[in-house]
């Protein structure tokens, strides 16, 4: 199972995955070999304690080291908001988070993990957030790449996603920004800074809901540099405690960040800011302009929602949503033009503040997704984690450009994907040498062209080998059988039978000149050591009897096309029957 996320737009059991798709009454562990978590965002890991502790799953759960470190903190934060503040029941507990995390196995980038005798997984760098990984999942010769969320362009603190040219049977990619070819990064940044600056200039308050780790660091670096350059004095705040936590993890997993951050960290703490100070709840009521970074990112609870409630009724203020919001969240509602928002306590407010959306969330855009497809050369593509209309646009683009099938299944839909099932065959060196040499003698050598070779296919201990028939019979201890076909024709021809034989000899020579043809002193003709033609009759009788006999020495041979390893069985020796038609 790839990822185990929570739907942030629901407050009931619909927020968790519907495990009845996997089994209705059996144990999940009997149906799933393992769970792979790509990164710490709750829409990718939020239902993990529910799955392992409440539904019941005892198998291994794989994630990278940073994800394993940060994931439980976000789960606990979210649990607190849901249970302690909203008073919800039927949710996992702190202890459940702990015992769930005990079942997780941390993996390193490019480390091949053998889950069992058949299943193999390998993580690749995905950018997006600290510790995010794409996974290559392999069983035998079949493989799938699952991207999770990823980013194909490096940002201020992380690098770009990268994957081997591993030609998987299927690439399952997120498609959050399937249509947007986002304007250049610098444009977006300038736009963001201008909006914040204009708003505080007019005395307004700016709220930026963020996730604790990820875009927050990116935007802080950006604002800090701008404030310094423009010599601005308006206070900027960041949710208390989160900076510390973030710093701790960036320091711990410095190898996962980009080179610039790695270099800076040696001299000073990259996330230690001059202009950005820790936020305290009472500041929200302070008069005058300010900028506040607060969690969580989609305004679905916690501090960001509290501040939003206070500030949203004034048109002087502004909220900047720096990323994608899941349907149903307040973030999603205001981005979709809802201006009357109802909160849990039935209190309705009218949103007058300016609502801005800036695509800072580090997902691949259409260009990035195409780039990844080009990079790993999949045989099929599946789009997930996106909106239908946008996916349709992108799937057409993928089909047109790469000529591969592109699927976009709805929730609960089953997709059948045809795959090649190559059967490996060992070819004996002798046979290979013999065939290549004799072919090379005939045609000009063309190393990349596929060649046809003849041999006996032997299956032993469920392994297939192609070898010279004589060798095969020797190994298997089988006596050689010869099957001969004979046919007698009557021909009207004047003169001695040897004269008729001579005529036939010339005819055969003309038609089968490439084969070895011999005529013995008694007039018998042999062709390719297999076909025998005998003419008999009386000198003054016009009717002559012609006996054609041919063997099927190599019996049923198999043609093996080496490039695709597909098998074709056919009878190879049909010279005899051709002679009959001549
Ligand atoms: Zn994410």
From TrEMBL:
Obligatory cofactor(s): Zn(2+)
Keyword field contains Cytoplasm: yes
Entries under InterPro entries matching the protein: Beta_Casp, INTS11-like_MBL-fold, IntS11_C, MBL, Metallo-B-lactamas, RibonucZ/Hydroxyglut_hydro, RMMBL
Residue intervals of the Beta-Casp domain: 216-334
A molecular function GO annotation: metal ion binding
Keywords attached to this entry: Cytoplasm, Hydrolase, Metal-binding, Nucleus, Zinc
Example GO biological process: snRNA processing
Any one GO cellular component localisation term in the record: cytoplasm
Major localization listed first in the record, in broad terms: cytoplasm
Annotated Metallo-beta-lactamase domain residues: 17-181
Protein's cellular compartments: Cytoplasm; Nucleus
Pfam families named among the record's database cross-references: Beta-Casp, IntS11_C, Lactamase_B_6, RMMBL
Keyword Nucleus on entry: yes
Family membership: Belongs to the metallo-beta-lactamase superfamily. RNA-metabolizing metallo-beta-lactamase-like family. INTS11 subfamily.
Listed name of the protein: Integrator complex subunit 11
Organism annotation: Ridgeia piscesae
Lineage summary: Eukaryota, Metazoa, Spiralia, Lophotrochozoa, Annelida
């Amino acid at each position: 199972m790839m990822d185990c996320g929570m739907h942030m737009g629901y407050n009931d059991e619909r927020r968790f995955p519907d495990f009845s798709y996997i089994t209705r009454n059996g144990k999940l562990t009997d149906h799933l070999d393992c769970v792979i978590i790509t990164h710490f965002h709750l829409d990718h890991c939020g239902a993990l304690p529910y799955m392992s502790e409440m539904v019941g799953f005892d198998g291994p759960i794989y994630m990278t080291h940073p994800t394993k470190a940060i994931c439980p903190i976000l789960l606990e934060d979210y649990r607190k908001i849901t249970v302690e503040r909203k008073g919800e029941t039927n949710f996992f507990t702190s202890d459940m988070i702990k015992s769930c995390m005990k079942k997780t196995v941390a993996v390193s980038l490019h480390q091949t993990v053998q889950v069992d005798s058949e299943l193999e997984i390998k993580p690749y760098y995905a950018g997006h957030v600290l510790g995010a990984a794409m996974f290559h999942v392999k069983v035998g010769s079949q493989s799938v790449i699952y991207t999770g969320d990823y980013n194909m362009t490096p940002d201020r603190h992380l690098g770009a996603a990268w994957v081997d040219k591993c030609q998987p049977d299927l690439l399952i990619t997120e498609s959050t920004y399937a249509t947007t070819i986002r304007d250049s990064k610098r444009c977006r940044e300038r736009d963001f800074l201008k909006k914040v600056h204009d708003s505080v200039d007019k005395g307004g308050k700016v709220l930026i809901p963020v996730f604790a780790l990820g875009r927050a660091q990116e935007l802080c670096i950006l604002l800090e540099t701008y404030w310094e350059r423009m010599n601005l004095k308006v206070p900027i705040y960041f949710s208390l405690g989160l900076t510390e936590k973030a710093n701790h993890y960036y320091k711990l997993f410095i190898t996962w960040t980009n080179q610039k951050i790695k270099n800076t960290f040696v001299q000073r703490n990259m996330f230690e800011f001059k202009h950005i100070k820790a936020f305290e709840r009472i500041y929200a009521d302070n008069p005058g302009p300010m900028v506040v970074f607060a969690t969580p990112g989609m305004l679905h609870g916690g501090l960001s929602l509290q501040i939003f409630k206070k500030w949203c009724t004034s048109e002087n203020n502004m909220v900047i949503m720096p990323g994608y919001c899941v349907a149903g969240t307040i973030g999603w509602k205001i981005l979709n033009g809802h201006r009357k928002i109802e909160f849990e306590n039935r209190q309705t407010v009218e949103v007058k503040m300016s609502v801005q959306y800036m695509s800072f969330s580090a997902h691949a855009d259409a260009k990035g997704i195409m780039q990844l497809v080009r990079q790993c050369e999949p045989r099929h593509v599946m789009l997930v984690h996106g909106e239908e209309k946008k996916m349709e646009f992108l799937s057409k683009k993928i089909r047109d450009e790469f000529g591969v099938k592109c699927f976009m299944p709805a929730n609960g839909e089953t997709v059948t994907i045809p795959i090649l099932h190559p059967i490996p065959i060992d070819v004996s060196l002798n046979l290979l040498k013999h065939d290549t040499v004799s072919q090379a003698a005939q045609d000009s050598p063309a190393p990349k062209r596929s060649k046809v070779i003849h041999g006996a296919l032997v299956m032993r201990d469920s392994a297939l080998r192609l070898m010279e028939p004589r060798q095969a019979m020797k190994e298997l201890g089988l006596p050689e059988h010869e099957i001969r076909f004979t046919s007698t024709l009557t021909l009207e021809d004047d003169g001695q039978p040897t004269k008729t034989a001579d005529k036939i000899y010339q005819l055969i020579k003309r038609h089968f000149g490439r084969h070895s043809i011999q005529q013995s002193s008694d007039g018998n003709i042999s062709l390719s050591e297999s076909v025998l033609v005998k003419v008999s009759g009386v000198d003054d009788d016009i009717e002559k009897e012609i006996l054609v006999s041919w063997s099927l020495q190599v019996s049923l041979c198999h043609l093996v096309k080496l490039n695709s390893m597909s098998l074709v069985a056919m009878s190879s020796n049909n010279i005899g029957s051709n002679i009959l038609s001549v």
